[in-house]
Amino acid sequence: MRKILNNKGDISSPIIVILITVAALSITGVTIAWMSSISSKAVSQGSLVIIGTPTITTDGTLYITIKNIGNVNTTIEYIRIGNSLYNSSIIIGANEVYSKPISIGGTFESGKIYNGIIVSSAGTYQFSAICQ
Prior knowledge:
Helix content is 23%, strand content 42%. It is of the alpha+beta class. It has 2 domains: 1-43; 48-131, PCu(A)C copper chaperone (Immunoglobulin-like), CATH 2.60.40.1890. Strands 1, 2, 3, 4, 5, 6, 7 and 8 form an 8-stranded mixed beta sheet that branches. 17% of the residues are buried.
């Protein structure tokens, strides 16, 4: 059997090389596991796209088409246009389109453009709606 310690009591060079290699492989394994867990979470998310130009009537009915281009369901929490707020629990499935009138309420002036936001589980989205 070979000696692990040399004559001076130091650890031999091949053992040092083996220990450094094992440490490097361990760190690499932990890094790969961490990166794969992060990437799987990043891939599984919803993302909304507003299709076309939203319109709103003078009595506060919003006509909007929203598509979820993500791969998980997204819940719209609320929609705000001006001072009017619509609390929502609209769920849009992955790769689905939502296109139904939404009664926001409030009074809007015909011909004006109103800025609005959609707050969802996938983030906040801004849009402009034309009042007709």
